[in-house]
Amino acid sequence: MTFNVGTVRKDFPILSKYNRGKPLVYLDNAASSQKPSCVIDSLAKYYQEQNSNVHRGVYALAEEAEIEYQQARKTIADWINVSAEEIIFVRGATEALNLVAHSFSKSNLVDGDAIILTEMEHHANIVPWQMIANEKNLKIKVVPVLEDGSLDLEKLSVLMAEPDSKILSVCHISNSLGTINPIEQIIEEAHTRNIIVVVDGAQSVPHTKLDLKKMDCDFFAFSGHKVFGPMGIGVLYGKKELLQNLPPYQGGGDMIDQVSFQGTTFAPSPQRFEAGTPNVAGAIGLASAIKYLARHDMKELAQHEDSLLQFSQAELQKINGLKIHGNAKEKVAVISFSIDGVHPHDLATLLDSEGIAIRTGHHCCQPLMKSLGVSSTARASFAFYNTIEEAECLVEAVRKSATILQ
Question: Above 80 in pLDDT, residue 2?
Fold first, then answer.
């Protein structure tokens, strides 16, 4: 399929909505993306025609639901080039990162071991590691961000060379800056030091076609709602040999093999990590979103998004007092910015009156904000269904608002 933004927009019902009496310009995609009709329809179909619990029933409806659920796992695994048995369904990237932090650390780290994080991490890739570090007396080392919004790779190399460094947990793409980290280079170096690498891929899956076998990360987490799928579903990928030796994260439901009051044995992975009734509809909806992306050339989508980024950055920088945070050479269509004398929340309120939805605040990246010397920023984040006309609306509305507020 040849990419045509006008055609694509027809697949997303919400994009025809009006906001404050103006056509909706949705530029908060880094927080949560919109859903195509096929995803919405897949959720409705499941509840209307297939609704049943999985792993339990032998009746026809349960068998049909089981087939759909397991097919969803395979669809997602194939998309990122891994085995279905290496895919664990979770509520989102946050739960995936918590699972790794607690399960892996519980069985593999000892007093004095160190975890490497970076200043650009989302709180979901900081707090779980802090919790387990406090519990097991581990150390946390932090890689700084350079002035252009890229990682200090020299400092990262120094930290990885230290013998107590055991885990590196790093975002592939910054949710606040849009910076694309050289993840394959980082992983290759980490593995020469026998360091396990956990990748927060919440921002990369929506923007690029990934091959996790080629990337060679040990764990990879992403959320459905950022990749045009439903909320409440996410994925943790883990290498088979690592998952086999991880203790379960939660207990109950079909994650067991045998239960008695003398003790319990557990099912193999991935079932061992999917306690309780799973989000069957969410998994099916996420698979539908992946199938939708597969209909398009991801390189064409990325090129379109980059054209929106280049135009918007160039025009926004012409506004008096406006500063863009994060100008790394490699970045996706995310623009965080501040304007002298203008509070981001006031700016967002005026943009909302023009029908434009952006995000303001610390973007769950308070350590990064401190590094940038700000408490919050305004953030416009694009998806492939956004248009150059919407980018023009953003620039004009920001220019107008800055004149009013400064």
Answer: no
337 forms bridges with which residues in the sheet? Answer: 324, 378
> Quick one: tokens of 395?
């620039």
How confident is the model at residue 58, as a pLDDT? 83
Q: Which residue, among 296, 91, 281, has the nearest Cα to 207 in the 3D structure?
A: 296
At position 284, the amino acid (one-letter code) is I
Per-residue pLDDT tens over the stretch 76-125: 999 999 999 999 999 999 999 999 999 999 889 999 999 999 999 999 99
User: How many degrees, rounded to 5, is the angle at CA 99 between CA 173 and CA 204?
Assistant: 15
Tokens of 55: 């792993």
Q: What is the DSSP letter of 13?
A: G
Please list, in sequence order, all residues whose beta carbon lies within 8 angstroms of the beta carbon of residue 318, skipping any fewer than 6 positions away. Answer: none
Q: Is the pTM of this model over 0.85?
A: yes
Report d(CA 301, CA 295) in Å as an integer: 11
Domain 41-294 sits in CATH at 3.40.640.10
Residue 1 has pLDDT above 80, yes or no: no
Percent of the chain's residues with pLDDT above 70: 100
CATH-assigned architecture of domain 5-30+297-405: Alpha-Beta Complex (3.90)
Amino acid letter, 245: N
The full set of domain ranges for the chain reads: 5-30+297-405, 41-294
Over its C-alpha atoms, the chain yields an Rg (Å, rounded) of 22
Q: Catalytic pick from 171, 364, 365, 393? A: 364
Structural contact between residues 250 and 275, judged by C-beta atoms closer than 8 angstroms: yes
Strand, helix or coil at 9?
helix
For the question of residue 171 being annotated catalytic, the response is no
Q: Is the pLDDT of residue 56 over 80?
A: no
10 Å Cβ neighbour count for 257?
12
Q: Cβ distance 330 to 184 under 8 Å?
A: no
- Pairing between strand 139-143 and 114-118? parallel
Residue 137 to residues 21, 99, 112, 151, 156, Cα–Cα distance (Å): 55, 18, 6, 27, 22
Give the pair of three-digit tokens for residue 20. 């404050």
CB 54 within 8 A of CB 62: yes
